[in-house]
Structure formats: C-alpha cells, structure tokens
Design goal:
- The protein is 60% helix and 7% strand.
- By secondary structure, the protein is an alpha+beta fold.
Length: 433
Amino acid sequence: MSESNVSGRDIKKMLVDGRDARQALIAEAAAKHTTVCVLKANTPGYPKNTRDSDFLLRVFTPLLEAAFTLDDHRRHAHLSGDFILFVTAEEARTVKRRASRIEETHPLGRFIDIDVYENGRVLSRVALGQPIRRCYLCSEPAQQCARLKTHRYDRLRKAIEIAIARYIGETLADAAADAMRRELFLHPKLGLVTHRDKGAHEDMDHRDLLRSIATLKPFFRTFAEAGLTPNLDVSALRKEGIKAERAMLEASGGVNTHKGMVFILGCILSFLARALYQGQALEEAVAAMRSTVKPLVNADFSAVASKSELSAGERMYKDYGIRGVRGEVEDGFPSVFAWYPAHTWRDEQKLCAIIARLDDTTVVNRHNLGTLKALKNEMKALIEETPFNIERYRRLSDTYKKAGVSPGGSADMLALAFLFERLDPLLGQTSGS
C-alpha cells in the first residue's frame, strides 16, 4: 500500500498493525535483553514517514549510541512510522532517566519519543517522578492535546519544519565559526595571523579576527537556512553576502579580515544544509554547489574585462589569469580534496598541502608571481618529507613572517577543511562507502 490515496480506515488499520508489529519486536528483544529502547519520530498525522521524521531519526541515533552502552540497534521500516530498536545491558531506569534528559534538553527533543522497556514493560515518566511532556505549541500536556486534537496537523508539522531549519542553521553556523577559530589558533602559520602574533600583518591581530567571526556568524546561519527553501534564491544570497562583508568591515575597522571566507561559505553552506537534511554525502553537496555556482562564477570572470573598478582578486584574474578562491569554488575545492579525507595529517601539513596547490591571490597581491611560485615549491617539498619536518615548517613560518608573505586564501581553505572534518560524521555516506 502506498502512502498516498489511502482512506481513514486504511490509516487506522495501518497504525494498529504498525503498533502490533513494533510490540512483537520489543517482546522478542525483551526475551533476550533486560532493557529495550525504541526511538521514533513524533510525527503528527499521516504520512508518518517524511523527510523530517527521517532527519530526526538520523540526528538522534548517534546521540543514543553515545549515551548508552548498546548491544545492538536496528532500524525497522513501516508505513506507520519507521523506528529504531536498541538493546542494552544497562539498568532500564537509568536508561530512561538519560533518555528523558535527551528529550528535554536537545533543541529537537520535543519531536521524538524514546520509549524504554524493562522486561518488556514500558517505563513511564510519572513512575520515575519525572515531569510529563508538554505540547510544543501550547505547553499543555502533550497527551491531552493529542487526545483532544487541539491543534491542526499542518500547524504541528510546520512547527517541526521551522525547528529543524533553525537547528540546521545554528549547527552549521556554529561549525563554521569553530572552524575559523581553529584555523586562527594554529601557531605558527607561515606569516598568517595567529592567537600569539600578527604574522606578517600590521593592520590586524587575533582580536580583530575573533570580532569578525562573531559578527559573521548570524550570516552563516542565513546562508545555511537558504538551502532548506524549495527554490534557492542565489541573488538574495549574494545580497546577504554583501551585507556580511559590510558588517565584517565595520567590526574590523575597515580591515579585510574574512572577505574570502564570506564568499566561500556563502557558496557552500546552503548546499551543506540541504545535504545534512536529506542525508546526502559531502561530495554530493559540493557537486550540487558546483552545478549552481559555476555559471555565475563564469559570468563574473567574463565581466572583468569591462569593469572600471576591480577587486584584488579580479585584478589577479585580469592580469595573470589566476582565479583564486573563485576558481576553488568553481572546481569544487581541489586544494582541499587533493588530500582530504585520505590523509590524517597534522594541521600544519594540511595547510602546506593547500598552499602547494592553491594559486593564492593574496600572496601575488602583496608580492608577485615569483613569490607565489617559490612558496608553492617550498610547500610541495615540505609535504613530501616523511616524517613531516615540523622544525623546518617553523623556520619557514618565521622566514615568511619577516618577508611579509601571508597566504590568506590558503588560510580560508584550511578553515573550510576544518568545517568538512566537523560535518562529515553528520552527513550521509557516498554510494559504495
């Protein structure tokens, strides 16, 4: 039976059959294990299996894996609502208390149920002296609202949809800001600003960069949430990127702290949000970004010849054909994927690998093509050494700092790599992996 064009009687029978099937599986598991735990999405109305319910199961499964010592867990499919059955040797009441904390404290905890069974019998919150669950629309007892059908199903589903979008936006904004801070706190860093010194820069220090990151974080959330709309409005996204740049310059006193990062994250975060929601892999998010952004980047490059005022990156393209960060976006970040995720290097090696591949317009703008070529060759030689020569890396960092060389574009790509590392466990897997 499909989930469309079904009668009320069919739905009622389906829900009863699903409950009976679930109880049979619980009884079977309870015969072998003292404690059985069932995770299901609290999806109002019908159909039960939606993108939102699938997302909720994917979010909470690893949380339960981390919270309990599990003997086994398995997802069971049913039109009355997929669920995941966990079994553990831990004491059931302890499991119930921890499960209730997850339901109460997680931003999306109101939209899932974690039922715990002791010797086949469900443990109630009331029996353990815990507060009853409240409706997420009116805060009345949830069972009362469900029994009386106080709220229309479309309102309840809309509340879940909004909460998920907010959660994804905040998760990605937090991850992006953390990745940028991680890049900043790597020291030493080949003439780049760190938390310990200004590197080759006289116009900024780590406090300027931290203010910039804090200022940009709300824009990162906006970039991400744009990917969850039915039709991605690229022109609106560009306008938001311009606002982000202005806010950054205001926070930094006119210094370009993260213009490249704004462009990179403005391009990728929407697609990472969509991938996270739909259970897609990182590679799928990057491929979707390329197909959408490539025509726009090509148009930008084509317009350079007719523009009277050029940015530093545009001037590099016009004079030398160097595409810099725009080329990285257009090609799907080759300076990162040349090594990620195959190599579990230390962070200094990752930076060297990026510099060795990237035509960093910041280096050319501050110096010349010769400096860029020498820098790339030095980094290629460094990453080929086994083991990695950290002392040589530190000497080069001091040399480039004194020479005023600062590969800012490479720093942006390193922060992006850190973002990918943070998100990869949350995303789906590529086919065949």
